[in-house]
Amino acid sequence: MAGETVAADPIIGRTTKQLQIQISSPIPANTGTKPAGVLMGGIPINRVVEVISNLHQGKSSYAFALNSQGVPIAHPNTELIGTPEKAAQSFLNSPNLRLAEITQKMVAKRTNIELLQLDGKWSYIAYTPLREANWSVALIVPKENIESPLQALNLLATVLGGLLLIGLISAWRQVQLYEQIRDRAFVSSQQAQELSKTLKELQNTQAQLIQTEKMSSLGQLVAGVAHEINNPANFIHANLNHASIYSQDILDLLKLYQQTYPNPTPEISDRAQDLDIEFLAEDLPKLMASMQVGTERIRQIVLSLRNFSRLDEADMKFVDINEGLDNTLMILNHRLTATPNQPEIQIVKKYGDLPLVECYAGQVNQVFMNVLVNAIDAIEESLVKNEGQIRIQTELTDEKQVIIQISDNGIGMSEEVKQRVFDYMFTTKPVGKGIGLGMAIAYQIVVDKHRGTIEVDSTPGYGTEFTIRIPLTSNK
To answer: Any residues with CB less than 8 A from the CB of 45 and at least 6 apart, and which?
Structure first.
């Protein structure tokens, strides 16, 4: 009678002795604001279970619905729903702490996509509340099934809409209240818009989750490799100094022997001639110096790897943008070198004299990585197998901004692609090579996280240029 449509938690019908859901909807009065009455009807619980059971996204995927206390209303495992003789147990008391934590969020009417471990395997769980019932619906998708994220979200949206309207449509058909149908259609349109907005938020959340997990895994891998290489490299580098001194001492002692005993025995003379002592004495210091240069190079690579990962820098810090670009190029060096099918990609750097910039170092490096990877892909896809070139230029503007320009001579972009390059899930790459997250995440990092700008200028057949502007200090 308050004018709201309500879908109650399951109860046992007096006549059927079966679990059912009571749905009540107000009948508007001709005058005034108070409803003239209420329409009520029951839906058997197995109908809801049937609808929920039809939700899936690939093998081992399923959905379930919880009431306001976290008790399952619909679940493919019917033992969890409960019976008239035995009440169902709330997921809030689940031994799986992650499931209990997510149930708490569902009870609190939250919407999100998270990664958790169920039954020994990692799965994504997308959950959202229902408007006209004090319930929440969740869709479980095994991690390996995520090939087309939009398909799962669209499926979830379709079923949610069906659950919201199923009770109302039955009531309307029974009493043929055409005026209510018109009014409800308007309300449904508003709900569809809200659901579309929620769906978009779910898409963005899932995209961020996938990209964050990928970059986190990459950062941990890079940091781990750098750590494992660093220890033996430092050991060798430190011992080379002593080895150089020892070898020089031995050579000095050998010269002293030659001066003291200028006429060695025939056996010593033959052995010295076989070993070419003069050549060894001349080449050994060069060899030691070359080894020191090599170990120093390894240490520089390790430092670049550690600086790129930036796992310990979750807060904003003042960093060197030019150094971040060099560290990223070091990571991508294997894709810049020549191969039998692709010539070397030349890097032309024109770095300006920049002050330190306050930013999230790891995220900015991620932007550089995404832009440079796209540039390399564009050069490799070019039909003209000329020498590829990537130009990187940095400068400081009068507006206290740092400008980073990264251009390539690859295949370029059409006007349509250029307009959508920063959209989520948009990609021109074949299946398995890209899912359309890189540039969308780069845009979010630059624009949302750093209050900067990122623009693209491209001509098909001539190449592409990305221009990134980041303020020197954060606008907190």
So the answer is: 10, 18, 19, 20, 21, 73, 74, 81
**Looking at this protein, which amino acid is placed at residue 231?**
N
The pTM assigned to this predicted structure is: 0.44
Structure tokens at 204: 């963005």
Q: 149-175 vs 178-260: helix axis angle to the nearest 10?
A: 170
Q: Yes or no: say if 99 and 109 are a contact pair by the CB < 8 Å rule.
A: no
Tokens of 474: 């954060």
pLDDT tens sequence across 443-461? 888 988 889 999 999 988 8
Averaged pLDDT for residues 364-385: 84
- The C-alpha atoms of residue 306 and residue 300 are separated, in whole angstroms, by 10
- Average pLDDT score over residue span 227-240: 74
Beta pairing, strands 345-350 & 317-319:
unpaired
- Each residue's pLDDT tens digit, 93-139: 888 888 899 999 998 888 888 888 887 788 888 888 876 677 888 88
Mean pLDDT to the nearest integer, 315-339: 86
Identify which of 149, 147, 108 has the alpha carbon closest to the alpha carbon of residue 126.
Answer: 149
C-alpha to C-alpha distances, 368 to 186, 217, 328, nearest whole angstrom: 47, 17, 7
21 with 40: CB under 8 angstroms? no
Cα-only R_g, the chain: 34
DSSP string, 308-335: HH-TT--S-EEE-HHHHHHHHHHHTHHH
Closest CA to 388 of 408, 406, 411: 408
How do strand 388-396 and strand 345-350 relate by DSSP bridges? Answer: parallel
Distances (CA, A) of 176 to 43, 170, 171, 193, 392: 19, 10, 8, 26, 69
Higher pLDDT, 57 or 273: 273
**∠ Cα 412 418 422 (to 5°):** 120
Contacts of 255 (CB under 8 A, 6+ apart): 281
Mean residue pLDDT across the chain? 77
User: Scanning the structure block, which residue is given the tokens 């780069």?
Assistant: 442
Compute the distance between CA of residue 327 and CA of residue 332 in angstroms, rounded to an integer: 9
Beta-carbon count within 10 A of 110 CB: 13
**CB 434 within 8 Å of CB 445:** no
